[in-house]
Amino acid sequence: MHRRPAAPPSSPPSRPPAPPRTAARVAAALTVCSVLLLCLVAVRWHPLLTLDGDISRTTHRWAVHDHEVTRIFRVLTDWVWDPLTMRLVCGAAAVWLIWRLAAWWTALWLAVTCALATIVQQAVKAAVDRPRPVWADPVDSAHYAAFPSGHAMTATVVCGLLLWLLHRCGPARALWRTAVAAALVSVAGVGVTRVWLGVHWPSDVLGGWLFGALLTALAVMVYEWPRNRRPELPVRRRG
């Protein structure tokens, strides 16, 4: 007696792919923090203004008396960590992605995110219109509104995106540690220089870090969103 082969079990109906959970959770947390700080700055919350003033007056006093450190910080903020320099680094990375890996989509994603960071930064500056610190004996000068710090935001976006792309490729341990250290020094260092030189309040720098990290997390969500395309970058696991 012959038995009929059992019919294969029916597969459950396909569901639309979900967004990357880790990036979504990070983006949600950063959104809350960014909006909260934005509101506190916009309503001129007195405790925040007091803390900003205390820190800024102290660092400005140091900047006026320590000419050597101030000179070094001006070089760093005007040339090394300047937003234009960061955008050029981002552009060079996009060119390398196209030239060496033919990763056109990744290069476009990188360039568009960097451009979007500039647009968001200028839009928030115009909306909040926060005045910069004013000193009787300034050591540096800057233009446009204060919040958020464009230097801090641009450095966070560029360093965050490049670090994330490098991590996907599974670099050697020495290279990865060097890249992380360089990114941390750049992001933290540019914030310190802006406050030291008296052109930003500390909360401006914090806002630049938060908005930059938020935009980076959203960009990662867009990149990792499931789509019918082959990955352009090699994904390796470090042993």
Please tell me about this protein's structure.
- Residues 106-220 form the Phosphatidic acid phosphatase type 2/haloperoxidase domain.
- This is Phosphatase PAP2 family protein.
- Keywords: Membrane, Transmembrane, Transmembrane helix.
- Helix content is 69%, strand content 0%.
- It is mainly α and 239 residues long.
- Helix 6 runs parallel beside helix 8 (202-224).
- The radius of gyration is 23 Å and the shape is globular.
Helix % is 55-70%
Largest sheet: none
What is the count of DSSP helices, taking H or I runs of 4+ residues? 8
Structural class by helix and strand composition: mainly alpha
State the total count of DSSP E strands.
Answer: 0
Catalogue the unreliable spans: 10-18
Write down the secondary-structure element order: HHHHHHHH
- Terminal CA distance reads 55 Å
Alpha carbon gyration radius: 23 Å
Strand content: under 5%
Instruction: Summarize model confidence as the mean pLDDT.
Output: 89
Shape: globular
